[in-house]
Design brief:
- This protein is of the alpha+beta class.
- The protein has three domains: 48-130, Immunoglobulin-like (Sandwich), CATH 2.60.40.1120; 134-226, Sandwich (Immunoglobulin-like); 235-292, no CATH class.
- Helix content is 26%, strand content 34%.
- The chain has helices at residues 2-45, 226-229, 247-254, 273-292; strands spanning 48-55, 66-69, 73-76, 82-86, 97-103, 110-115, 126-130, 134-142, 145-146, 152-153, 160-167, 172-178, 184-191, 193-199, 202-208, 214-220, 267-268, 271-272.
- The strands form six sheets. The chain has a four-stranded antiparallel sheet, with no helix packed on it. A four-stranded antiparallel sheet has the order 12-11-14-15, with no helix packed on it.
- The protein is rod-shaped.
Length: 293
């Protein structure tokens, strides 16, 4: 009986010890479990983060931007400017933030850091805004142009100017605008790239090679022919019958100089001057033949 009593006492002591230890350890265990339980749902509720590269001035999506995440993950944006980042991946495990680096030819490099401790609070897509490198083009239109009547002019007031080409960022550029009253124009934000300038169907190539470059250029349409420049201002003299063509023009067209030949055909009121001269010559020859007979 004594042995049984001692055994019961030993069991009782052991049981009390277990109960005491459990009481002491249980709060700590419960606290850790609650913390883990609170953290786990947030990680599971959001598995991916969307990142979008956009142009800061136009909000246009940037295609093929090189994105680096925490110097471990390397991605390239789609035509919509978006990449999909798996924050539970092996490369990003153990991180509670994302260090995002973005690069694109023709743009300044950009960086952004976001916390992923609670991904459910992140507004998606996360936008990383990039600035294009740009230059300035100043131009003036010079030279002459001729109208449908062959009159030369050198006025370029409100002249239409077209700019088209491809920026280094792969953006297609098409501009159309007007010059001022004296043929001057200026483009302040022309992205780095190569372009064609078109004025009166004539084209020139220009290249903006770096940020902040200022290009100043003269765009000459054609050399002015000063002899014909004021042709439209000459007062045409009238013949006696009030005809609409001057003697100056008539003589110039027929080349009526000694030993000269008729090269141009000029019609006046439907009458061909050249045919008249040929007819007169023919009559003279026929008259000589008649006399001979």
């Amino acid at each position: 009986m004594l042995k049984i009593s001692e055994a019961l006492k030993s069991i009782t002591r052991s049981t009390l010890s277990i109960i005491i230890i459990t009481i002491l350890i249980l709060p700590v265990f419960n606290q850790n479990f609650a913390h883990a339980a609170a953290k786990q749902p947030a990680e599971r509720s959001v598995k991916y983060i969307l990142i979008k590269a956009i142009d800061i001035d136009s909000s246009r999506a940037i295609n093929s931007a090189a994105i680096t995440i925490n110097k471990r993950m390397f991605l390239s944006t789609s035509p919509s400017g978006i990449i999909k980042v798996d924050i539970g991946s092996k490369e990003l495990s153990g991180f509670d933030f994302l260090d995002i680096q973005a690069r694109r030819e023709g743009y300044f490099d950009e960086s952004l850091e976001i916390s992923i401790k609670d991904p459910s609070k992140i507004a998606q897509p996360v936008k990383i805004k990039m600035k294009q490198k740009m230059g300035t083009l100043t131009g003036v239109i010079t030279g002459c142009w001729s109208d449908k009547d062959g009159h030369y002019k050198d006025s370029y007031s409100n002249e239409e100017i077209k700019v088209f080409g491809k920026a280094l960022s792969s953006q297609h550029i098409i501009y159309k605008f007007k010059s001022d009253a004296e043929g001057n124009f200026k483009i302040f934000n022309l992205p780095v790239g190569t372009y064609e300038i078109e004025i009166r169907h004539k084209q020139w190539q220009i290249a903006v090679e770096k940020q902040g470059e200022e290009i100043s250029r003269e765009f000459s349409i054609r050399k002015c022919n000063r002899e014909q420049y004021h042709k439209s201002d000459k007062n045409a003299s009238k013949d006696k019958d009030g005809g609409g063509i001057s003697k100056f023009d008539l003589n110039e067209s027929l080349n009526q100089k000694e030993g000269g030949s008729v090269k141009n055909y000029l019609k006046i009121d439907g009458y061909n001057v050249n045919n008249k001269k040929n007819a007169e010559k023919s009559n003279v020859k026929n008259g000589d033949k008649n006399k001979t007979k």
